[in-house]
Amino acid sequence: MKSGCQSQTRKELRAANIDVQGRFVTSNATRKAGSKITTYLTRNNVTLTSTFTRYQPKVSPFDGKAFKKCSVVGNSGLLINSACGHEIDVADYVFRINVPEMDPYIQDVGYKTNFTTLNPSIFKRKNNYFASTRLTDKFNQDISQYQGLLMFPCFSDAAWVPICTRALQRLTPKKSLSIAFGDPDQFSLIRNYWVTKGLQKYPSTEIATAAIALCEEVHLYGFWPFVDSSMPHVTTHPVKYHYFDNTHMVRTHDMQAEFELLTRLHQVGVLRLHIRACSPERAGLGTGDGDTVKGMNREPVDKQQKRIVIEKLWDNV
């Protein structure tokens, strides 16, 4: 990776008052019980209650930290049959997004977890807001596979605060997993920074931003905005939005614009974006079933053309 471009990006992040080491997540050093927080998306003032301060760390978990090599793992179906699991796990620090299912996909996605996000919308989709003991037990079982830090972006939307409160009240703590909450002020600054780079919608790249700030090498896996791919390891068409389920792409983000931005960062050496199989001789022996995914849209011609152009960039990599 080209360290000059990385250094410049880090300087720009600092100049934009983005402080990943000190303020990416709330802590008792930066946010006190009873203080007011302005939510990131809805711009409402909410009160930080003791339910949250009980779990948030005393100081930032990234204070004074830096890592040699980091993996940031998205959830695209492009990971199926990629055999990237080992390569992901050998990183010093692994970021994952929205508590993805890892077993039985370990060969393709790995199992190491250091920092994992959990969007509160999942509490509705998977746990029906903990309407029963069974659903509460499922929530605790789902997060039991994770180690390290589990980050809830509870203060992105005022409506999520009571939902997070309910989740925390039903959480069964374990020593190997700490809880943290994304700081909405930092998320706003991150969004403003990427707007200057041409990204207009709310980014889903907060975690990639954190990795750029913290890691000497940043490797991204499972980021793919297109509904198909001509990569040799891909046998499921269209490509699933999530490798572990059949959900569809959300409209909150502009995934194609984000991916084009990530591609530019890849080209100048700020990060390394992996879209090929990591171990070609093992690819195709993993979790893919070669199915056509029912109910998913076929690829529009204009997006197909953009995808082909991007895939060709990797021909000489």
TrEMBL record:
Molecular-function GO terms, alphabetical: alpha-N-acetylneuraminate alpha-2,8-sialyltransferase activity
Key words of the record: Glycoprotein, Glycosyltransferase, Golgi apparatus, Membrane, Signal-anchor, Transferase, Transmembrane, Transmembrane helix
CDD domains (alphabetical): GT29_ST8SIA
Name of a matching Pfam family: Glyco_transf_29
Annotated GO CC locations: Golgi membrane
Membrane topology (UniProt): Single-pass type II membrane protein
Localization: Golgi apparatus membrane
GO biological process, any: N-glycan processing
Transmembrane regions: none
InterPro entries linked: Glyco_trans_29, Glycosyltr_29_Sialyltrsf, GT29-like_sf
Superkingdom of origin: Eukaryota
Family per record: Belongs to the glycosyltransferase 29 family.
Listed PANTHER family: ALPHA-2,8-SIALYLTRANSFERASE, ST8 ALPHA-N-ACETYL-NEURAMINIDE ALPHA-2,8-SIALYLTRANSFERASE 6
Name listed for the protein in its UniProt record: Uncharacterized protein
Lineage of the organism: Eukaryota, Metazoa, Echinodermata, Eleutherozoa, Asterozoa
